Amino acid sequence: MTASAPTSVDGLEARPTPATRVTAHRRPAWHAATVAAVSPESPNARRLVLDVPTWPGNDPGQHLDLRLTAEDGYQASRSYSIASSGEAPQVVLAVDRVVDGEVSPFLVDAVEVGDALEVHGPLGGWFVWRPGASERPVQLIAGGSGIVPLVAIATAHAEAADPAPFRLLYAVRTPEDVFFRPELDRAAAAGAPLETTIVYSRVAPPGAASPAGRLTRESLARAVFPPEAGALVYVCGSTPFVEQVLRWLGELGHDTTDVRAERFGGAS
Ligand SMILES: Cc1cc2nc3c(=O)[nH]c(=O)nc-3n(C[C@H](O)[C@H](O)[C@H](O)COP(=O)(O)OP(=O)(O)OC[C@H]3O[C@@H](n4cnc5c(N)ncnc54)[C@H](O)[C@@H]3O)c2cc1C
Fold this sequence. Notes:
Blueprint: E1 29-42, E2 45-51, E3 63-69, E4 75-81, E5 90-96, H1 104-109, E6 116-123, E7 138-143, H2 147-159, E8 166-172, H3 181-189, E9 194-200, H4 217-223, E10 232-237, H5 239-251, E11 259-263
Helix pairs in contact: 2-3
Bound molecules: flavin-adenine dinucleotide.
Flavin-adenine dinucleotide binds at residues 63, 78-81, 94-96, 98, 100-104, 145, 148, 238, 262, 264-267.
């Protein structure tokens, strides 16, 4: 068992790693949290940095449940992936506004620095990647806000200079919708680089390798490791996006037992 160092997702204050904190002690529990910082992540999304003094740390890829309590006692909770990992008593989230949603518009538009929230976690033991676990190639596939847990994984890979070859396929609508661009640029420039392909469905930036267009089975096949590479694949995004990608991976001959999926919801 090893304690992991905090990863440097922007907005997260790096703290020394207490040698006594180990993964096995990270049992999920409720924690009081305070909003430490908010910043726009895209025109439709916001980055939230939460101070969680009792946070036990989390692995790259894990998520938490966030609970809001209204003045009349009404409560609502939703799951959010964690863009940071390691031992810091802070977590970084990125929330996309779902039109007519109950919780996400509040988090994107109304929550302010100093507001109190509650979080339950860390959660999820399957959609996790740890540096040093294996030298197998890793393929990350994100649709929209599904990039959040994959940023935690890519950042941990880059900071550990882990030798596993890493690729990211990221499907977004426009260049403005790319989350965590500084972190992705850093991961791409790291000693153990992240090979990144961004597919823009509506507007591509000048000089993009391909014109704007929806992700297809063929463009996915061009961007990801071939089935014979035996990559471990992490797919995350809305439920329809994940289901479509899983179908294509199966049709292209990928071993589905090597694929881990996280579905954020939405009609399928
Ligand atoms: C493990 C996990 C991790 C998640 N991580 C993130 C994250 O990092 N960032 C993030 O922005 N969201 C994430 N989500 C989605 C999040 O939990 C909420 O579902 C989302 O914020 C919408 O909540 P809401 O209360 O605004 O909408 P609701 O009031 O719950 O729903 C309103 C309508 O929107 C639909 N809907 C709900 N969620 C989605 C969605 N994701 N896409 C499209 N339509 C939807 C519902 O079906 C409903 O019709 C995650 C979900 C899971 C299960």
